[in-house]
Amino acid sequence: MNILWRAIARNRWRLLAGCLLIALHQACETFVPIVIGETVDLAVATGSVSRLVTWVGLLCLLFLLLTTAYRNGARQLMRALADESHALRLEVAAKVLDPRAEVRTGDVLTISTTDADHASYLLDYVPRIVGALVATAVSAVGLCLISVPLGLVVLLGTPLVLIALQRAAPRITRRIATRQEVAGRASSVATDLVTGLRPLRGIGAQEAADTRYREVSGESLRATLLAARTQGLFQAASNSISALLAGGIAILAGWFALTGRISAGELVTVIGLAAFLGEPFGTLSAAPGWIATARASADRIADLVGSSPAPAPAGSPPILPATGECLGVVAEADAAELVGRYDDGSPDVLVAPHHPELFSGTIRENIVLSADRELDAVLRASSADDVVDAHPDGLDHPIAERGSALSGGQRQRLALARALLAHPRLLVLHDPTTAVDAVTEHSIARGIRDLRHRPGSQLGTLIVTTSPALLAVTDRVVMLRDGEIVATGTHASLAALDPAYRAAVLR
């Protein structure tokens, strides 16, 4: 997937308008020293007031035109850049939200921010390069009209400089890609360490974790410095060459003026153009580095967006609850794989995984997707009302990233409340109460039953668990071994008659 070409294609009209307007702006800026030189020769040297007023008026019109062109061109390009950056972030987010995606958190952070920005900046680079080429071409023509040797210096020197500088682009691309890759790895390690800080303290592994982060952070620093050094050397070389080229033109013009080959006004024009050419020369010489940066970031985005997700667990769900049924499933092994078979993306099915995800925000924002009259009932059914009541600000209590300030049981209850509030036709729960105490577990089991399986309910609930409290409120329990049903019945009957079931559940 060529991210850069696609960015140009889907922003082509704004990009075209921006290129034309920026090119007009640069052309007008090029004409400014030309008009000033003509004013010196045709108005100042002759002492004609009328000509002076005419040329000054033309100069004012040039400034008005170049200002208007730049303002409108920049508006078009900034809108295209912002839209493209937003579109890239949405693509990255959509890929990451795929439950089967295998992406490091740090990579998501750097790709969705730095890389998305760098790739979309191409829409700013293209018109700047076009404008610089127009300015260089107009300047070369103007210089040729004054002196052919001066024009040839620009026409021949500019391509040679660009070709020489282009040889450094692949190295810049590689080093920037390495920098972003290592930075993503460092962010991933930092995220993992912050998330697992409590367990690390519990087992006394803080020093080992600190050492690991120092190593990857040091590697990231070295890669960043190497990339910055490469870019700095490239920028220094491009600026030096641009200054030497512009300075050479000015020196040659001064010699021509001393020998009488050009007039005073033409000297003013050449000096003005030489000073102005520093900007387009700088832009053209820096362009290979810009493109290399955008390409490195685009390649990382393409690798993520174009990656194949992890294969879905093989096979269809082995069993589904009947309409209105609460079904318990005891899987002796591979319960997570079993749960994954139900996650087919259907809007009628909601799979609540064993490890819940909470986000920075308030309790309300983590649970309520829209106004719901049953919020209080859901909070009671999941025992999340205790979590809400434990804080003075209730539902508006702020939650840290991933709910790191909450206990495991509190996170489970809030995630269960969110799942219950969604009212899916089929709700699949995977061990939703492993981090709560026995009394709370019994309360949650009864709450799920009462909320989703009232008389006449058409909702189905499937609970993959070995919890006796949860299995006791189900209508039916199915026991699986190697994906095959080996026993079925109520919790009470299986507990009384099936030794394997008792061994799996009553531990």
Describe this structure in words.
By secondary structure, the protein is of the alpha/beta class. It has two domains: 87-305, Up-down Bundle (ABC transporter transmembrane region fold), CATH 1.20.1560; 326-505, Rossmann fold (3-Layer(aba) Sandwich), CATH 3.40.50.300. It is built from 19 helices and eight strands. The strands form two sheets. Strands 2-5-6-1-7-8 form a six-stranded mixed sheet. The protein has a two-stranded antiparallel ribbon with strand order 3-4. A hairpin with a 2-residue loop joins strand 7 and strand 8 (484-489). The radius of gyration is 34 Å and the shape is elongated. It starts with a helix and ends with a helix.
What strand order characterises the main sheet?
2-5-6-1-7-8
- Beta percentage is 5-15%
Q: Could you give the count of β-strands?
A: 8
pLDDT averaged over residues: 81
3D shape: elongated
| Structure class | alpha/beta
CATH topology of the largest domain: the name is: ABC transporter transmembrane region fold
**Assembly annotation:** single chain
CATH architecture of the largest domain: Up-down Bundle
Order of helices and strands: HHHHHHHHHHEHEEHHHEHEHEHEEHH
The fourth-level CATH homologous superfamily of the largest domain is: ABC transporter type 1, transmembrane domain
Largest sheet: 6 strands, mixed
**Helix segment count?**
19
Backbone CA Rg:
34 Å
* CA-CA gap between termini: 53 Å
Low-confidence stretches: none
Number of domains: 2
Which structural traits does this protein have?
507 residues; alpha/beta; ABC transporter transmembrane region fold; Rossmann fold; 2 domains; six-stranded mixed beta sheet; two-stranded antiparallel sheet; 8 strands; 7% strand; elongated; nucleotide-binding
